[in-house]
Structure to design on (64 residues):
């Protein structure tokens, strides 16, 4: 649960940053949100979740 909240916050910060810089338009953001909702209801959702979890585990295991 903590990983998904962190990813959501990171994506929200990036979206706000892109909106303020003019690199992301509202229509593009809405399409991305709709794509996310549709992906969450498909059979690919567990694969995407496990991929994000594996990536988060890999990044958290790195030592500078």
């Amino acid at each position: 649960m903590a990983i998904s909240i962190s990813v959501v916050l990171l994506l929200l910060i990036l979206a706000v940053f892109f909106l303020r810089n003019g690199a992301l338009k509202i229509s593009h953001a809405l399409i991305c949100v709709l794509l996310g909702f549709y992906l969450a209801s498909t059979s690919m959702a567990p694969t995407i979740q496990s991929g994000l979890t594996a990536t988060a585990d890999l990044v958290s295991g790195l030592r500078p």
About this structure: The longest helix spans residues 2-21. The chain has a mean pLDDT of 80. The radius of gyration is 14 Å. The helical segments are 2-21, 26-40, 45-61.
